[in-house]
Amino acid sequence: MLAQTYADSELWREVVRRVSGCIGGKGDAEELVQGAWLRMADYRATRPVRNPAAFLVKTAVNIYRDRWRHESKWMDRSVDMETQADANPLPDRVLAGRARLERVQEGIARLPPRTREIFLLQRLEGLPYGEIARRIGISESAVEKHISRALAFLVNWSHGW
User: Fold this and answer.
1) What's this model's pTM, rounded to 2 decimal places?
2) Do 118 and 131 contact (CB within 8 A), yes or no?
3) CATH number of 91-158: 3.40.50.2300, 1.10.10.10, 3.40.190.10, 2.170.150.70?
4) More reliable by pLDDT, 129 or 24
5) Are 31 and 61 in contact (CB under 8 A)?
6) Could you tell me the pLDDT band of residue 2, with boundaries at 50, 70 and 90?
């Protein structure tokens, strides 16, 4: 290629080194600089280039970024397609999930009132144990025990589902 004529020059080696550093050593810096060299040749046909090294580095990095964006868009589209395909579960899984949910709801309803209240504050509202303890007027240790009892009961209650 045109750039190979200059491959032995100090300018060429310096530009390739700088491009490699800018792109984190990823990709083929030589190929990017060759593409940049061709663009610089087209640019020079109509305008002067005052700093060829800076032009080549900037252009090569831009080529790399353009490729990365293009590849990322395609990757995003394929991920979106996979996500859409998996987004709608099969009807049997929906029914099984609903049955498990009903079973857990029945189990929660069977918890002692205070344990149920503490469990729901922690699981549904996401409150930390300290906040629950202050709100209800018990120790943090008591909150931990209520949560532990609720979880143990629900695990046993839901066993086999």
Assistant:
1) 0.45
2) no
3) 1.10.10.10
4) 129
5) no
6) very low
Domain coordinates of the chain in residue numbers? 2-87, 91-158
Q: Which two tokens stand for residue 47?
A: 């305008």
b/e per residue, 17-35, with b = 16+ CB within 10 A? ebbbebbeeebebbbbbbb
**Average confidence score pLDDT of the chain:** 83
How many CA atoms are closer than 13 Å to the CA of 44, on its beta-carbon side? 12
Please report which confidence band the pLDDT of residue 86 belongs to, taking 50, 70 and 90 as the band edges.
low
Three-point CA angle 148, 149, 153, nearest 5°: 120
Burial of 37 (0-12, 13-18, 19+ CB in 10 A): buried
Cβ 20 vs Cβ 29: under 8 Å:
yes
Length of the chain (residues): 161
What is the per-residue pLDDT for 3? Answer: 46
